[in-house]
Specification:
This protein is mainly α. It contains 17 helices and no strands.
C-alpha cells in the first residue's frame, strides 16, 4: 500500500531509484580496476585482495531476502534511506583506512546497505507505478542494472587516471548522497497495510544457506572444485537451503513461499536472470583480464571498449516492452537469450591481435540480448507476488542476479584458469618461474617477454573455452525459457493461482504476454 501524503512524480521517482540501483551495482565491479593501486598502498595479500572484492557480494546476496521482507513491513522508502546511509557511511570510512582487514569489514558493511537498497528500488516501481507505465519503468530499471557494472568500471578507470583508489569510495559517497537527497524529496512511502509477522527463522536459514553456498563458490577457483572444503561448503549451503524450503512450506507466514516456483513464469524469470548474470559477470571478469593483460590496454581504455555493450543494451531494453506487448513475452525473451549467445560466441574467437571491430561485433549483440531478455524476466518475477510482498519479489530478482554473478565469475573463471594452465608448456625456465607463470598471467609478466608471449597464447585458449561455456549456457537457458512459456493446450493442464500483483488468468491457457 502506498502511504498517502504526496503525489507520485513518476519521472523523478524512476530517476532516483535508478540512481540508487546504479550506486550498488557499480560497486560490484568498480573496485576491480583499483586493486593494483590498492594492493601497493595497503600491502594486501592476494587472499585479502580477493575478499576486499568478494565480501561485498557475499553479504549482499545473503541478506537480500530478509532485507526485502523488512522493507515490505516497515516501508520501502525507509529501507532505501537506511540502506543509502549505511552504504555512504561505510564508503566514507573506507577512505580513511589502509588496513586490508578493515577494508574487508567495510566492504561487508556496504553489502548490508546494498541489500536494503536494491529490493526497495524495484519494489517502489512495481508497487507504485500504474500498470500502463510499469513495463516501461521496469525496462529502464533492467537496463540500468545491466549497464551499471560497465559504467562503474569506466568511472573507476577515469578516476584512477588522476587520483588513488580512495577516489572510488569517494565516488560511492557522492552517488549515495545524491540518491539520499532525491529519495527524501521525491520517493513516497509504501508498505504492506497489514504486515505479517516477521519470519525470523526463515530469514536466518536463508541468510546462512546463501552465505555458505556463495562463500564456497567464491573460494572454489582458489581451493579447487574438488577440494573437500569447497564440496563441504556447497553441501552445507544446499542442506541449509533445503531446510529453509521445508520450514517455509510449513510456515503460516513464510519469508518466501516455495510454491511460487510452481508458477512457470516466476520459475522462468528466476532461472533466466540467474543465468543471464552468470554469463554477464563471468564475461566481464574474463574480458577485463584479456584487454589489460593480453592487449595491454589501460584500465580506462579497457572500460571504454566495453561501452559498445550498453550501446546495444539500452535501446533494446526500451524496445523490449513494445515487442512484448505486440508479440507476447516469449519471442523477445528467447530472442534476447540467443543474441546473448551469439555475442559470446563471436567474442570466443578473439586472439591476441584482434581488432576492436571484432570486440564490438560481439559486444553489441551481447548487450542487445541482455536488453531484450531482462525486462520480461524481471516482470515475470515481480508480477507473480502480491503488492504487499513486492520487496520480497524484488529481493528474489536481485538474489538471482547476485548468485548468477558469483557463479559466473567462479565457473567461467575456473574454465579460464584450467585452459590457461593446461596450455602453458614452459621449457628452459627455472621451476619457481614456471610456477609463478602458471599461477596467473600477471605472474608470467615478471618472467620476461618470451614467457609472457607463451602465457598470453595460453590465456587466449582459456578465454575461448570459458566464453564458449557462457554461450552454451545462454542457449540452454533460451530452450528452458521457451519450454516453460509454451502455451498449454489441454483443459486439464492448469497453472497454480498464486495471488499475483494484479489478476493473471489461471487455468487451461496460462497467459504468456507481459504482466
Amino acid at each position: 500500500m502506498q502511504v498517502p501524503g504526496r503525489p507520485l512524480r513518476q519521472g523523478a521517482v524512476l530517476a532516483v531509484t535508478c540512481l540508487a540501483l546504479a550506486t550498488v551495482m557499480a560497486a560490484m565491479a568498480s573496485l576491480n580496476v583499483a586493486l593494483p593501486d590498492l594492493a601497493r598502498q595497503t600491502h594486501a595479500t592476494q587472499t585479502q585482495q580477493s575478499w576486499i572484492i568478494d565480501a561485498y557480494s557475499l553479504v549482499f546476496a545473503s541478506l537480500l531476502l530478509p532485507a526485502g521482507a523488512l522493507g515490505d513491513r516497515f516501508g520501502r522508502r525507509r529501507a532505501l534511506l537506511v540502506g543509502l546511509i549505511v552504504f555512504g557511511a561505510g564508503s566514507a570510512l573506507a577512505v580513511f583506512t589502509t588496513n586490508p582487514d578493515q577494508l574487508i569489514g567495510l566492504r561487508a558493511l556496504l553489502g548490508v546497505g546494498a541489500a536494503l537498497i536494491m529490493p526497495a528500488t524495484l519494489s517502489t516501481i512495481t508497487s507504485g507505478f500504474p500498470r500502463a507505465q510499469r513495463a516501461r519503468a521496469v525496462s529502464i530499471w533492467s537496463a540500468v542494472a545491466g549497464a551499471s557494472g560497465v559504467l562503474g568500471l569506466l568511472a573507476s578507470g577515469t578516476l584512477l587516471e588522476w587520483w588513488t583508489w580512495q577516489s572510488v569510495f569517494w565516488f560511492n559517497v557522492l552517488l549515495s548522497a545524491v540518491a539520499l537527497v532525491g529519495t527524501l524529496a521525491f520517493v513516497p512511502e509504501s508498505a504492506d497495510s497489514r504486515p505479517a509477522p516477521l519470519d525470523v527463522v526463515g530469514a536466518i536459514l536463508a541468510a546462512a544457506g546463501i552465505a555458505a553456498l556463495v562463500h564456497a563458490v567464491i573460494e572454489a577457483p582458489v581451493d579447487g572444485w574438488s577440494d573437500p572444503v569447497t564440496l563441504g561448503g556447497i553441501g552445507l549451503g544446499l542442506v541449509v537451503l533445503v531446510a529453509f524450503v521445508v520450514f517455509e512450506l510449513r510456515s503460516r507466514h513464510p519469508l518466501l513461499d516455495p510454491r511460487l516456483f510452481t508458477n512457470r513464469r516466476f520459475a522462468a524469470g528466476s532461472l533466466s536472470i540467474t543465468l543471464q548474470f552468470f554469463a554477464l559477470f563471468g564475461f566481464i571478469f574474463v574480458m577485463m583480464q584479456y584487454l589489460q593483460l593480453v592487449r595491454g590496454d589501460s584500465a580506462l581504455t579497457a572500460a571504454l571498449f566495453l561501452l559498445a555493450m550498453p550501446i546495444g543494451m539500452i535501446p533494446a531494453s526500451r524496445l523490449s516492452p513494445r515487442l512484448t506487448q505486440r508479440l507476447g513475452e516469449r519471442i523477445p525473451w528467447v530472442a534476447g537469450l540467443l543474441a546473448l549467445a551469439v555475442g559470446l560466441g563471436v567474442l570466443a574467437h578473439l586472439d591476441g591481435g584482434s581488432a576492436y571491430w571484432h570486440i564490438a561485433a560481439g559486444l553489441v549483440p551481447l548487450g542487445a540480448g541482455l536488453g531484450l531478455a531482462m525486462p520480461p524476466a524481471t516482470t515475470s518475477i515481480t508480477s507473480a507476488v502480491p503488492k504487499s510482498l513486492q520487496n520480497v519479489g524484488s529481493a528474489v530478482n536481485d538474489l538471482a542476479r547476485e548468485l548468477g554473478g558469483a557463479l559466473g565469475i567462479a565457473v567461467l573463471g575456473s574454465m579460464l584458469t584450467a585452459g590457461y594452465r593446461d596450455n602453458l608448456h614452459l621449457t628452459g625456465v627455472p621451476p619457481h618461474v614456471a610456477e609463478a607463470a602458471k599461477s596467473s598471467l600477471a605472474g608470467a609478466a615478471a618472467a620476461g617477454p618470451r614467457v609472457m608471449h607463451q602465457a598470453q597464447d595460453a590465456f587466449v585458449t582459456g578465454l575461448h573455452t570459458s566464453l564458449h561455456g557462457g554461450a552454451i549456457t545462454a542457449v540452454v537457458t533460451a530452450i528452458a525459457v521457451a519450454v516453460l512459456l509454451r502455451r498449454r493446450r489441454t483443459p486439464g493442464d492448469r497453472t497454480p493461482c498464486l495471488a499475483p500483483a494484479e489478476p493473471v488468468p489461471c487455468g487451461g491457457r496460462e497467459r504468456t504476454d507481459a504482466a
